[in-house]
Fold this sequence. Notes:
The protein has twelve helices and twelve strands. The protein has helices spanning about 40-45, 75-80, 90-95, 105-115, 135-145, 145-155, 220-235, 250-260, 270-285, 290-305, 320-345, 365, and strands at about 15-20, 50-55, 60-65, 80-85, 130, 165-175, 175-180, 185, 195-200, 205, 370-375, 380-385. A hairpin with a 6-residue loop joins strand 8 (about 185) and strand 9. It is globular, with a radius of gyration of 22 Å.
Amino acid sequence: AWDIQAGGLHLFHAKAVLLATGGYGRAWKITSNAHANTGDGVALVLDAGLPLQDMEFVQYHPTGLYKHGILLSEAARGEGAYIVNDRGERFMKTYAATKMELAPRDIVSRSEQTEIDEGRGIGGKDYVYLDLRHLGREKILSRLPQIHDLALHYLKVDAITDPVPITPTAHYSMGGIPANVRTEVIRDATGSVVQGLYTAGEASCLSLHGANRLGCNSLQDAATFGRIAGQQMAAFIRGRDREPLPADPLARAREKIAHLIEGTGTERHAVLREELQENMTKNLGVFRNEPAMSKVLETIRSLQDRFRNVRVDDRGQAFNLDLIEALEVGNLLSFSEVIVAGAIERRESRGAHFRTDFPKRDDVNWLKHTLAWRREGKIVFGSKPVFLYPEYQPQERKY
């Protein structure tokens, strides 16, 4: 671990480790995720030679605050808010007539993006409106106060009198670190366990959500499986000695940090991060296709090469946020390659992964989990079967 306050590396010799480092939404420019959600734990696992699972499945939420991506709760639509285009039309009648604004997140997000792409965004721009005005002042302030505050604070829009600009925003990572129901990290398709390594929360992929998370189910990732992880780890460490350490366990971390602080490179990590996020948002968003994804994959590999020439301006130790951000950008560039390569590999549309060149779900060839390793600098794919209860077979969604 790096000591942010004082600087310097510290070694924690643990009997067991829990990776609960959150999702990876910051790979996109427009995201509801916190700035800290840079997928650091996911990148650590990939760097350790272990696989990642189902990384191509990233949920977009339909009501992100325009430009910022800050989440405007689904409660707004639950209370009866409308989503309208430049013509003032509640356009969900075209895409999901029986559910309208209450259709699943991926369908509403794709519907919004279609309206925007076809020129029916507000004023021809890249947003539509969330309209709460008909709910009335009392209901908005009593039932939806946060939404009112966020729109007023960030966009200077009063939701009582004016519609709020919204856009789809990268929201939740269904993929992540593969684990079993005991939260033990697994290393292969047969479920072989990595002794002493556990994961929970959004960083994990127990496939609790399949290809498309339902609202509130993320609480199970954190609360339910966080508790299970604690119980499993407590049982695991009883009467167990620590595993022996290698000769110089800090060597790789020390070398990485020295390269950034003491190096003579000319690249700046903020420039690389911005270019990554722009490309991911533009070419790997709500809609995907092979030419666009191939372009962003080429860009990511170019950015990885450039990252080797990054140095930080702050050469100090204490509170070196320049260094922290550089390390985060390295992680973003590492696992983003897996997301894009996995999305190219999966030639179908399923859940949150929608390809315009393969718009149908293909259960014959793709009803399986994606596993991805980095080996000798290249992403290598495998798969493992999906567990299905006999009484709950996949079927087409119709609205």
